[in-house]
Amino acid sequence: MNAAPDLKPQDPNFEARVRDSFNRQPAMHLIGARMIVARPGHCEIELLRQPKVTQQHGFVHGGIVGMIADSAAGYAAYSLFPADSTVLTVEYKLNLMAPADADRLVARSIVTRHGRTLTICTLDVFGHKNDTMTHCATGLATMMCVLGRPDGPRDAPSGTIR
Length: 162
Description:
The protein has three helices and six strands, in the order ααββαββββ.
């Protein structure tokens, strides 16, 4: 599935900007996720199964499934934003349809409507195990474009967590 054909990035260097932002996310490093697709209005994030991201039954934890889906949506939207902006999640709704009992998960997000401030994305997470692919989760996300705020670390007051 591809993004709507009329979606064009406002920044010709969007892919480098998107990948750089993803690579600065300690949370994605913590769980071992990596970005495998960054196209205008489309992002995919891969996560290999590791014991540290599973729940008591050995499935990848639903919170981790949501985590990679949220990031995929954020970067699908961010790919269309101007260079002098950043992205924040407004909301997302995720239906967990099957246990994430997979060796590899792929979260895919496609922009369905891009607005000046809010961008709507679909979310899907697929589990891959042996020769089987399972559609584990589906949902919808709303992302916000924050203009005039470069996508980088904010200065935090002394004693606070960044």
